[in-house]
Design goal:
The protein is α/β, with parallel strands linked by helices. The protein is built from 13 helices and 8 strands.
Length: about 325
Amino acid sequence: MRRYARGAVRKRAASSSTGSMIVGLAVAGLAASALMNHRLARKAERDNPPMGRMLKVAGVRLHYVERGSGDPVVLLHGNGSMIQDFESSGLVDLAAQTYRVVAFDRPGYGHSDRPRHKIWTPEAQADLIHAALARIGVSRATIVGHSWGCSVAVALAHKYPQMVGGLVLASGYYYPTARADVVGMAGPAIPLVGDIIRYTISPILSRLMWPLMMRKIFGPQTVPAKFRSFPKAMAVRPSQIRASAAESALMVLDAAAYRPVYASLKMPVAIVAGAKDRLINTETQSARLHREISQSSFNRVPGAGHMIHQTATQDVLAAIKEVTAHHG
């Protein structure tokens, strides 16, 4: 009996030792992953320094580029993106031939800060962009939003209608729907647990899933060669993953909050979307918005996907020209 008891004790001790070793290895692996991701993020920032100017507004550092002259046109990128998306598409250079183009890294993206004490709703970002535009002497502009940037554009138009001469809304999400994918995408925004995920696992998974993600957002078209200059390494930094996760978590709620606003907009509105968008349903989103905003136009681009500014750049430029002509 004593022999049996001693054997049981030894087994429990061995099992406990094995469990401790596994936990220790897991912690060491996470620490090594976090260190590697931190170094890769710093390297990405060194390899991709700010393209434009830095501006501090309400304690927040904002990065923006400005090009051209004429009527102001402001570009607001989508979730997970940054200024280089508009730059690589060619839209900045094309629009700058006629307009004064200002493109922002929204809070948390590219080289812009995203302080954690604030929930960066579309309205909060609209307040920040409005203050930034006032600082650089833009009192009235055409606002161009892509995807999540459309939510910020609408918030600007609703809260500061005197500043928004017109809207160009490309591939936006406007009405709440059941989105199971949002739950998984929002994980890295959860305090503490999310911080561990975004510093360890998320950057690695993002790199592995990048080709699949690109096929989805560009599909059914192929990723254009010009998009190769987009700095993927910047997009998979822990800081930018957190910003993207937070906006994913807000997406459905924000759409519900702004649903009553659309019909009240009075400025010219041009809506552009790909007929084959695999990320956002064009019929239940953009087409519905067009029906609700009486003074809007709608260009459903045949065969195009979500990245309409990349694959149908001239269509987006035409929408800008249409809107500026109406309020210019």
